[in-house]
Amino acid sequence: MRPLSDGSGEIQIQIRDLDQTVVGNAAHHRICVGLSLATAARGSDLPGVTPARMVEEMVDG
User: Fold this and answer.
1) Contact at 8 Å (CB) between 59 and 49?
2) Do 33 and 40 touch, CB atoms closer than 8 A?
3) What's the pLDDT tens digit per position in 6-22?
4) CB distance 29 to 37 below 8 Å
5) Phi and psi at residue 4, in whole multiples of 5°?
6) Pairwise CA distance, residues 7 & 15, whole Å
7) What letter would DSSP give residue 8?
8) Beta-carbon contacts of residue 30 (< 8 Å; ≥ 6 apart)
9) Domain enclosing residue 39, as ranges
10) Residue 2 and residue 16 in contact, taking contact as beta carbons nearer than 8 Å
11) What does the pLDDT average to over 23-44?
C-alpha cells in the first residue's frame, strides 16, 4: 500500500500490488522486502559491505 496526498492535503491509500490484497506466504513477502531493501541500498551512498550486511540482518531476523 502507498499513502498518496493531493495538493489540498487529502490522503488516500492506494493498493499497488495484488500481493497486498490477500494473506499469503510470509517467506514470499520476505523475499520481496529483501529485494526492495537491496535495491534501495545499492542506490544509496552507504559504504562498503553495509548493504549486504543489512540484507543479512533481515534474513537473520
Assistant:
1) no
2) no
3) 778 788 777 666 666 67
4) no
5) -125, 145
6) 20
7) T
8) 58, 59
9) 24-61
10) yes
11) 79
- Work out how many domains the chain is built from and give that number: 1
Q: Is residue 57, in this structure, part of any structural domain at all? A: yes
Residue 53 lies in a domain: yes
Task: Return the bridge partners of 12, or none.
Answer: 4
pLDDT category at 2 given cuts 50, 70, 90 is low
Residues 6+ apart with CB under 8 A from 58: 30, 33, 34, 37
In a domain, 45, yes or no: yes
Residue 32 lies inside a defined structural domain of this protein: yes
With beta carbons less than 8 A apart as the criterion, state whether 8 and 20 touch. Answer: no
Q: What does the block give as the cell for 53?
A: 550486511
